[in-house]
Amino acid sequence: MLLPFYLLSMVSFLPVTNARIPFYGKTIQNQSQVLDIYDFVVVGGGTSGLVVANRLSENPNTTVLVIEAGVLHNKLSFDSDEHEDFITIPLITSANIPVLGNGPRGTKYDWNLTGVPQPELGGRSVQTPAGKVVGGGSVLNSMVYNRGSRAEYDRWEELGNPDWNFDGLLPYFKKAENFTPPSEALLAEWDIEYNPAFHGNQGFVQSSFPPFVWPSSRNFLRAMLELGIRVLKDSMGGDSAGAYWFALSLNPRDESRSTAREYYIPERLNLHLLTQAQVTKLDIKAHQSKHSVTGVEYVMNGSFIRQHVNARNEVILAAGALHTPQILQLSGIGDATHLSSIGVEPLVDLPGVGANYQDHLLFVIVQSVNIAVSTSNISNATWNAEQRALYDTERQGPYTTTSGNFLASLPLNTVAINGSSKAIQSAAAAQLPTQYLPTDIDGSVIDGYLRQHKLLVRGLSSNVSAHVEFILSDSVILPVLLQPFSRGTIRINSTSPFDPPQIDPRYFSNPLDLSTLIMSVEFGRALQATHALQELNAQELFPGASVQSTSELGDSIRDGVQSTHHHVGTASMLPKHLGGVVDPKLRVYDIHGLRVVDASVIPMLPACHMQSTVYAVAEKVGFSFSRL
């Protein structure tokens, strides 16, 4: 029988020991409370780390420690002293992700990273926020809860990963989700449809439709129909190429953000969560045949004293696509030539560590519309106060949603209203792919990219896989590049774990990506010109009507493009000879006792926002642990 949490906090901690004895689960911030050894040590308490820790600790005989560099944000109720509006209230969360260079909020929940200057962006650096908090990116993201199309996940299997396809992931998409169907009022007014076969209803992550819909959503829906875009009944079943209503990671009980924090169950006696502690490297025991990871080294925030904790079975890296390769490289796992050049002794030569970096890019088309209720009303203090009061008292109104309710994920052929998709397809097929990769990259990584390039070229003619997303709001239309050809790197350039990793996204290093976004802006203008949006007198403010030529549009995009923070690929699940870092069980090659479970293992980006996919990946691995 589990003790209530308030009693657990009153129980003294058991002595430190290597023996297998019971211990009381708790959140700890004091190194003295950490045991010498656990069965599993999970590095990172974010979107994937908490899932894995939850599934491991379902076995009461398995001891688990999660180490998280950030704090535990208390979102248990709206009465919490630590409640913060910009985390929990949907409409306010829309401002968490920087666009047009507005910058991150700089809170304690963010690593506040910035990439290196990008040559194709005129030397501009792009801000790269990443969650530094229990719950990770699920605490800071824009809450969109969607999936890509079947073809985008099936590619993972084609690259050499058996059972990593849409059908293999669907049970775990559903396992993570606790779906609440749209209300009768929404169904009646907006004709939102869903298929219960594609959704789970017992998961930890709440997924629902907000009770408020911006009136302009009806115009966006009609505009899509004018342009011949099909409207999907439910995008979650492997067919997401079209326009659709999207759900949010939203708790319908109080219309607040739902995060991976829901996976953390402090009452479990076999689970510890150590917060405000940064893992600096892996502890590795050398063997002639195969090295073994025995634990991790870490420091408490504000301290430079190195501490160690051992793992009896495995260390599981879940630090995210930016920090997982950093920890691996600091530990001597990565490209041996690069590691030697900066003074790190290479122990396991895996050139794919930090390579194959991919990200979705967005551009902002700013527009004005003439409609009584729109996102522009937020600047009106009186209206804002009224709507906030409505949310606080009744959980109704605009504050229950984000800045949009309706989006479109479109194939290249659909976006190419002027037939320019043929030019992009021809250019892609004629490319020498190696021309657009870093010059110092290993041959195995090149071979892996050549396989990916073929799949990307094949997909350009597909009508069932999306290449550009359009996030639709009153004041903006956001084209998002969904299947980039460009590949970047994450590398350490010093031996100090306190120096940030060197993030080089290499945006637009492959010119196909810029061509696709230029075409997307042209589609956005066609959308503005529809009768449906002209009823709202939609007028473009940025980049502006004077910007017309391909060259001018390209310059505007280079100046304004931003990351969507969908970082993947830096410890890719690929065969080793293709630059892979982990095998299909997510075990790191050539070393015992180490696994990676986060977005870094995803070998190719699906055409969607990433949180539901990361949950599914972690749930799939979590299920494999249940059979150990």
Summarize the structure.
The protein has 628 residues and is α/β, with parallel strands linked by helices. Helix content is 27%, strand content 18%.
Write the layout of secondary structure elements.
Blueprint: H1 5-8, E1 26-28, E2 37-43, H2 49-57, E3 64-67, H3 85-88, H4 90-93, E4 113-114, E5 127-128, E6 144-145, H5 150-158, H6 166-176, E7 177-180, H7 184-190, E8 205-208, H8 216-226, E9 242-245, E10 247-248, E11 250-251, E12 256-257, E13 271-274, E14 277-285, E15 291-300, E16 307-317, H9 320-330, E17 333-334, H10 336-341, E18 348-349, E19 361-362, E20 365-368, H11 381-394, E21 406-410, H12 412-415, H13 421-430, H14 443-459, E22 468-472, E23 476-481, E24 489-491, E25 502-504, H15 511-528, H16 531-534, E26 539-542, H17 550-560, E27 562-563, E28 591-592, E29 594-596, H18 611-625
Parallel strand pairs: 1-13, 2-3, 2-16, 3-13, 7-8, 15-28, 16-29, 17-18
Antiparallel strand pairs: 4-5, 6-10, 9-21, 11-12, 14-15, 15-16, 19-23, 19-27, 20-23, 20-26, 21-22, 22-23, 24-25
Helix pairs in contact: 2-18, 6-18, 13-15, 15-17
GO biological process, one term: secondary metabolite biosynthetic process
Signal peptide: 1-19
Keywords: FAD, Flavoprotein, Signal
**Whole-number radius of gyration?**
24 Å
Q: Terminal Cα separation, in Å?
A: 24 Å
Task: Please state the second-level CATH architecture of the largest domain.
Answer: 3-Layer(bba) Sandwich
Largest sheet: 9 strands, mixed
Secondary structure tally, helices: 18
Shape: globular
Binding site for FAD: 47-48, 133, 141-144, 279
Family: Belongs to the GMC oxidoreductase family.
Active site: 566, 609
Protein name: Glucose-methanol-choline oxidoreductase N-terminal domain-containing protein
